[in-house]
Amino acid sequence: MANTKDTTEPKKGKNFRFILVFGLLVIVGGTYGIIKYVHSQKHETTDDAQVEANISPVIPRVPGYIKEVLVKDNQFVHKGDTLIILDDQDFLIKEELAEAMLASAQSGLSIAHAGIPVTNANISSSETNISTVDAQIEAAKVNVWRTTKDLARYENLIKDHTITQQQYEQALAAKEIADRQLQVYQAQKNSAKSQTAAISTQKNVTLGQVSSADAAIKQAQANLDAAKLNLSYTVITAAVDGQVSKINLQPGQLLQAGQALFNIVPNNLKWVVANFKETQLTKMKIGQKVTLKVDAFPNKEFEGTLTSFSPATGAKFSLLPPDNASGNFVKVVQRLPVRIDFSNSKDSSLNKLRAGMNVDVDVHLD
Q1: What is the CATH number of domain 60-87+234-259?
Q2: Rounded to whole angstroms, how far apart are CA atoms 255 and 259?
Q3: Are 272 and 109 in contact (CB under 8 A)?
Q4: How far apart are CA 68 and CA 82, in angstroms?
Q5: d(CA 115, CA 123)
Q6: What is the pLDDT of residues 74-99, one digit of tens each?
Q7: Helix (H/G/I), strand (E/B), else coil: 359
Q8: Looking at domain 89-232, what is its CATH homologous superfamily?
């Protein structure tokens, strides 16, 4: 009988402990489930989120060989700091050539301008000649009129034998000389007009040369400006304040225009992009408060504000977006990127954050 009691009592003790542990697990599990359920009614969470920041690429605008690299990996730089210097000998030669072309064009303009006063003087002289010839023509017309009248009187007198034949012939000769003189002056006037027209044409040609020389100067000036601009591009500077990424460049290396060299990440602005399931977006809206926990700093909570929703899901921006009309359709819950800005942009702790860090996001629903 004593052995039976000893066996029963340990079994009862084990059963009690099991029931106690099981009950505690049920209570703890139920409490945790209730807490999570109540929390889910007022919150939407996701761990599919990362810190984002602007990334400014360093890109050369002209091709050339690297002469000197003035920055190192992860170095902080200010806007305008020199990062890389390219060999500028070719660009200096092009600048000198452009300056020579500009000087040549300016000389051509000076020569063209010098021809204008000469042409104007010739035109003025020709117009003066025309005026002189016009006066001579008028005088010749008067002489023709007078000799014509004299000849008419002498014709009447010769019929009456009042004058001699010699006198008549002299009057006739004077009339013919006056007619010939008028014709000469008229021919001189026509010649002067032709000369004036030729000089005017030459003036137009000279003015055209001036315009052409002026255009050549503008073109040469533009070439010089372009040469100076390309020369300035041989010094590659930082476009923003920030920290440079890894630099894999060496002096003597050939760079191409538009080639991405490395990046500068500014430290003054960061935000979070969280990818929420489409089923989580029902109660989410812009302006809601957000609690953020960065994996790198688990003991620090950041506050943020939901500021915008992406216009499309992440899958639509992928290189090969899914096409549900292909006939092989499997419904997959999509995720929508949501931007969250830090509420206190002056928090010094933000300087420790780096783009790409993982974040746990908790959106407080209204």
Answers
A1: 2.40.50.100
A2: 7
A3: no
A4: 10
A5: 12
A6: 999 999 999 999 999 999 999 999 99
A7: strand
A8: Helix Hairpins (1.10.287.620)
Q: 342: which DSSP letter?
A: E
Q: Evaluate if pTM is beyond 0.70.
A: no
Query: Both tokens of residue 124?
Result: 């003025």
Distances in Å between the alpha carbon of 235 and those of 69, 94, 242, 249, 336? Answer: 10, 16, 18, 15, 42
- The encoded tokens of residue 322 equal 């899914």
Distance from C-alpha of 365 to C-alpha of 45, rounded to nearest angstrom: 10
Query: Which class is 42-55+265-364 in CATH?
Result: mainly beta
Could you tell me which of 363, 364, 360, 366 has the C-alpha nearest to residue 51? Answer: 360
Please report the DSSP string for 71-102 in residue order: --TT-EE-TT-EEEEE--HHHHHHHHHHHHHH
Domains 60-87+234-259 and 89-232 share a fold: no
> Closest Cα partner for 342 from 283, 298, 300?
300
DSSP-derived letter for residue 188 is: H
More reliable by pLDDT, 7 or 294: 294
| Residue 265 near residue 355, CB atoms below 8 Å | yes
Contact partners, residue 214, CB within 8 Å, separation at least 6: 109
- Looking at residue 12, its amino acid is K
Domain boundaries, the chain: 42-55+265-364, 60-87+234-259, 89-232
Does the pLDDT at position 6 exceed 70?
no
Residue-wise pLDDT for 17-29, tens only, equals 777 777 888 888 8
What strands lie across the sheet with 56-58, from one edge to the other?
Answer: 56-58, 262-265, 242-244, 76-77
Structure tokens at 202: 């030459």
d(CA 187, CA 129): 13
